[in-house]
Amino acid sequence: MDGTWKQAVTAVEKQRPLVRNAAFVAQSVPSVMQAGKSYAVSITMRNTGTTNWGWEGYKLGSQVPADSTIWGTGRATLNTSPSEIVLPGQTKTFAFTVTAPSTPGTYPFQWRVLQEGVEWFGTASPLLQVSVVQ
């Protein structure tokens, strides 16, 4: 021994927790629809979490009630290809087609991001009351 102390120091990088989160940005939805007709709609959401949204089941799902098929579908897919990824901070516009209910009335229209089989997360789109006419 030469009388000196040696100490090993290991740097540990702290990992951020992986958080799924989303914020509503914009939507384009007709306020009046004709019963039984199909309409193109779009909803833009921002990835405000720390995880990438990728091919692993990230979708936009109907609300009020959750998984409702009032609009002919209960899901809008995130990806057009396996290579499409929405990084934290980026926005994604979900463009899809809905079919108005066959019975005239006023119907709720609201959607939220989810990872299929894992969880719903983030803020939903604003609740719209869409008038369906004959």
In words, what does this structure look like?
InterPro entries: Ig-like_fold (IPR013783), Nbr1_FW (IPR032350). This is DUF2808 domain-containing protein. Pfam families: N_BRCA1_IG. Residues 31-123 form the Nbr1 FW domain. This protein is an all-beta fold. The protein has a single domain, classed as Immunoglobulin-like, CATH 2.60.40. 0% of the residues lie in helices and 42% in strands. The chain is built from no helices and 10 strands. The strands form 3 sheets. It has a 4-stranded antiparallel β-sheet with strand order 5-4-8-9, with no helix packed on it. It has a 3-stranded antiparallel β-sheet with strand order 1-3-6, with no helix packed on it. The protein starts with 21 loop residues before the first strand and ends with a strand. The relative contact order is 0.29. The model has no long low-confidence stretch (mean pLDDT 92).
Brief account:
This is DUF2808 domain-containing protein. The chain is an all-beta fold and 134 residues long. The protein is 0% helix and 42% strand.
CATH architecture annotation name? Sandwich
Shape: elongated
Task: Give a short account of the largest sheet.
Answer: 4 strands, antiparallel
Remind me, CATH topology?
Answer: Immunoglobulin-like
Mean pLDDT: 92
In the predicted model, the low-confidence regions spanning at least 5 consecutive residues are: none
The CATH class turns out to be Mainly Beta
As a percent range, the share of helical residues equals under 10%
Strand order of the largest sheet: 5-4-8-9
What is the number of independent domains?
A: 1
